[in-house]
Write a structure and sequence with these properties.
The structure holds two protein chains of two kinds.
Chain A: H1 2-8, E1 10-12, E2 35-39, E3 43-48, E4 56-59, E5 62-66, E6 77-81, E7 95-96, E8 99-100, E9 103-104, H2 107-120, E10 131-136, H3 142-155, E11 160-165, H4 166-174, E12 181-186, E13 191-197, E14 200-201, E15 207-209, H5 213-227, H6 237-247, H7 254-260, H8 264-270, E16 272-275, H9 288-333, H10 339-348, H11 353-379, H12 403-432, H13 437-451, H14 467-472, H15 482-498, H16 505-508, H17 514-517, E17 519-522, H18 525-531, H19 546-555, H20 559-566, E18 569-572, H21 581-592, E19 601-603, H22 610-617, H23 619-624, E20 627-628, H24 629-635
Parallel strand pairs in A: 1-16, 2-10, 10-11, 12-18, 18-19
Antiparallel strand pairs in A: 2-3, 3-4, 5-6, 5-7, 8-9, 11-20, 12-13, 13-14, 13-15, 16-17
Helix pairs in contact in A: 4-22, 5-6, 9-10, 9-11, 12-13, 12-15
Chain B: H1 2-28, H2 54-62, E1 98-99, E2 106-107, H3 110-118, H4 121-130
Antiparallel strand pairs in B: 1-2
Classes of the chains: A alpha/beta, B mainly alpha.
Chain lengths: 692, 138
């Protein structure tokens, strides 16, 4: 049963990769159709106003990737945009985004992203002749809006642009008939609490905290890395994001739940294990038996080879012998004076007959010897197994009788090492404090070293002199050395074999398989990460959490308006899809609202895509209130007509010279939308629009 | 004759290569829908300062005078929390009643204390960094 439970709660990582977007063919049917761009700081979603779903959804970032680094030729930079980035972790440090928090600030990056967008919509005309509906941050600075208009009108030549706020779009899509409500928009970088009365958002009483999905992901990522330092590189931001989406939830009663996690049974019941990918060590598939077989086979082959060689040699020798014997017999027939005799000697390569007989006897002897050897070989073909090598002599008992004594010795050695380690650790702690004997001794030595006069200084002549630096080392002189660690492991493995009870629990809790070494356990993290939204102090952020901000915003209204607002608390934005967030906010409201008052909490149908749907549904009205080219040329890029889904805009009272405002330098519509010399316009004066 | 033919072929190859390169260059040309002469007015290349970040934009906004009812990006920043943050153990997330004076890490019970003391310096710093408590001043 237990194992079955464990397999249920072991989760794999998907490590999804982005798929490059196709190029959607452009046709005349799209002429004049508004283009809806939800330009979020996390994702950008783009589609025509006639589409059912956004055509392109991509991470709003790109990476400049240097192709051949290190080569002498000017390195070609390759720009990977959005979904072209297959593995985002490979280019994590080169990522660039147009956004700073939730506001677009880097317009060159924005240009890259828009290029990507329009290219994938296959726009083949000399300008983007469409009205654009684009989202922007709530209370977006005029400066940012101005530059966005400049980019859209002058670089792409769009027809008009309508700015709206993502959260408000989502609100009005989900609440077409409810005029009052409190919008809570949890974004990637920020969380907004926006009161809406009579369908109109009240920016003056809205508040924003700098806490969003991005912070949750980063916190989880860093925390897991610190919690499991051995998997530092395996825990990536994208994996943290995946874990966040799959396993995190928001506790309804955080304090109560977190205390429960301290209970070991609760932990065992609810802990989730994530299996990190790992490469199995190259385990040879051959068994020990097979290995032995193979070794035997090789040995046999070697023996055979030797035998064959020996046999060949033997045959050669025998042939030689018969030749020599024949020669000898022939020589006996002749006298030494005869030429045949001399001839025979030459043939046998010997100076005299006696030498020849000697040679024959030697050869005989040799043949005899070889034959004997071969006989022996045949009788003992079955070689004995080579004795297994002893891994380490020191930690294996020499004899069975000495075992007990030996185990005691090993135990003593183990204790010694542990004691040495503890002493070092203690010293290190002592050193860190100021008023301890250890650190005072250290200071004394240091001052002594400093005082030593130059003249008769023979410091360093003896090797022991240098030990003084070990003594004053803050680490306490020498850390747990590699050698010592190895020894300790050796001893422990020996002890585990011979007296398993000695090491106690430490050996039993050892992971049994390699896969288990690559698992990370999620316990309190499951609720702790989502809790950041409610307790940003856990992240070191001074601002209050969602519920504190709600309370603060409500406090800005009279009781009647408060009632109207809390009657419809509306949650939207990516992280608001964390399970449990709705009941948590209900609970918080119940705690803070007066006794027996009414409120309701609702969530968006699709927290991520609703802004886009909302903009598409009301695209006609939005285009009506958009900033047209004529408006842009007349008033500049930050002038807004206020509508229920958009920001209000204020013009600065600071008078600005008309010549320097970029809007005024734009030429008429007929020409290509290129200002002849825009770069001469001073940049600093872009922010305020000309006040009327 | 043969050699000349070869050279001709080679030349053609080179021509093709050149054309390929040209095509590549054309591919890298700005897309048709863009105005080729467009230049960002706000990019401060001369001062080598690039784009204004959000902080600079906000402070720039402050330097102008605005109508009284105007709401800025910076004016909707949420106030600091009115209640002190609860303290949780840095190593387990459980509610923590104690702080180790040496490492400044929070812990919830004695067993955690020993774990805290055994942590290497980089982990300790990382944990403090996580709740932005690693600065010497704080």
């Amino acid at each position: 049963m237990n194992t079955a439970d464990e397999t249920v709660r072991l989760y794999e990582l998907r490590d999804a990769r982005s798929v490059p977007d196709p190029i959607h063919p452009y046709s005349d049917n799209f002429k004049g159709v508004p283009l809806v761009i939800d330009n979020g700081s996390y994702q950008c979603r783009v589609g025509w106003a006639t589409d059912q779903e956004p055509r392109i959804v991509f991470r709003n970032c790109y990476a400049k990737h240097r192709k051949d680094r290190g080569k002498k030729i000017a390195a070609e930079t390759e720009i990977l945009v959005a979904n072209d980035i297959g593995n985002i972790e490979a280019v994590r440090f080169q990522l660039k985004s147009p956004h700073d928090e939730n506001v677009v600030t880097h317009f060159e990056a924005q240009e890259t992203m828009l290029d990507y967008t329009f290219t994938h919509l296959d726009i083949n005309t000399s300008r983007v002749a469409h009205p654009i509906i684009m989202t922007e941050a709530f209370c977006n600075p005029n400066y940012s809006r101005q530059l966005m208009s400049e980019l859209l009108f002058e670089c792409y030549g769009v027809e008009s642009v309508s700015y709206c706020v993502d959260g408000l779009l989502s609100y009005h899509r989900n609440n077409p008939n409810t005029q009052d409500g409190l919008l809570i928009n949890v974004g990637h970088y920020t969380t907004h609490v926006v009161p809406i009365l009579d369908g109109i958002a009240d920016p003056a009483n809205s508040r924003r905290t700098r806490m969003g999905g991005q912070h949750l992901t980063r916190f989880l990522w860093r925390w897991l890395q610190l919690r499991f330092p051995q998997h530092l590189n395996a825990i990536t931001l994208s994996r943290a994001e995946e874990i966040l989406h799959a396993h995190m939830y928001i506790a309804e009663d955080y304090m109560n739940e977190i205390v429960q996690w301290g209970n070991i049974d609760y932990y065992e019941q609810y802990v989730r294990r994530i299996q990190l990918p790992f490469v199995a060590a190259p385990v040879s598939t051959v068994s020990v038996e097979q290995q032995r077989e193979r070794r035997k086979e090789a040995a046999r082959r070697l023996v055979e080879l030797n035998a064959r060689k020996r046999e060949e040699k033997l045959q050669e020798d025998e042939a030689e012998l018969t030749r020599l014997v024949e020669l000898e017999e022939a020589m006996e027939e002749f006298t030494p004076d005869e030429p045949e005799y001399q001839h025979a000697l030459e043939e046998a390569e010997v100076p005299s007959l006696s030498h020849l007989t000697k040679k024959i006897s030697l050869l005989n002897h040799k043949i005899e010897k070889t034959r004997n050897k071969m006989m022996q070989q045949n009788t003992t073909t079955e070689e004995e197994e080579p004795k297994p090598k002893r891994v380490c002599e020191a930690v294996n008992p020499q004899k069975q009788a000495d075992l007990e004594q030996w185990v005691e010795e090993v135990k003593q050695q183990w204790r010694d090492i542990q004691a040495r380690r503890a002493a070092r650790r203690h010293k290190r702690q002592e050193m860190a404090k100021r008023r301890t004997a250890a650190s005072q001794e250290r200071m004394r030595i240091i001052s002594q070293l400093a005082r030593r006069e130059k003249k008769d200084d023979n410091f360093g002549m003896r090797d022991e002199d240098w030990d003084v630096y070990k003594a004053i080392n803050k680490e306490g002189g020498g850390s747990d050395s590699e050698e010592e660690n190895e020894k300790l492991q050796e001893l422990e493995s020996a002890l585990r074999q011979h007296s398993p009870e000695f090491l106690g629990d430490s050996s039993s809790s050892k992971p049994t398989s390699l896969a288990e070494n690559y698992q990370i356990q999620l316990s309190t993290e499951q609720i702790r990460i989502g809790e950041l939204l409610f307790q940003p102090s856990m992240y070191g952020l001074e601002q209050g959490g969602i519920s504190a901000t709600i309370q603060y915003v409500l406090g800005l209204y009279d009781a009647a308006s408060q009632e109207r607002l809390v009657a419809n608390v509306f949650l939207t934005g990516g992280p608001s899809s964390l399970p449990g967030i709705k009941s948590r906010i209900k609970r918080e409201l119940l705690a803070s609202r007066p006794f027996q008052s009414h409120f309701s909490v609702n969530t968006a149908k699709c927290p991520v895509l609703d802004p886009w749907y909302g903009a598409r549904d009301s695209s006609e009205e939005l285009v009506q209130v958009g900033l047209t080219r004529a408006d842009y040329q007349e008033h500049g890029g930050d002038r807004l007509i206020h509508h229920k889904q958009g920001n209000m805009s204020w013009a600065s009272l600071t008078p600005v010279a008309i010549e320097s405002a970029p809007g005024s330098t734009v030429p008429s519509k007929e020409t290509t939308p290129a200002p002849p010399d825009l770069s001469s316009a001073p940049s600093d004066t872009n922010l305020p629009s000309t006040s009327s | 004759m043969v050699t000349t033919e070869e050279t001709v072929e080679e030349k053609e190859d080179k021509k093709q290569e050149k054309e390929d390169k040209k095509q590549e260059k054309e591919d890298k040309k700005p897309p048709v829908f863009k105005n080729p002469e467009f230049q960002h007015t706000a990019f401060r290349s001369s001062k080598k300062r690039g784009w204004r970040n959000l902080k600079q934009i906000i402070s720039l906004e402050r330097t102008y005078s605005w109508p009284d009812d105007c709401v800025h990006y910076s004016s909707i920043d949420a106030p600091p929390a009115f209640t002190p943050g609860k303290k949780y153990s840095d190593i387990s997330g459980l509610p923590a009643n104690y702080t180790d004076p040496l490492t400044k890490l929070r812990f919830s019970d004695a067993s955690e204390f020993y774990r805290v003391r055994d942590l290497p310096m980089d982990i300790v710093n990382g944990l403090l960094e996580l709740r932005k408590a690693s600065s010497i001043v704080g």
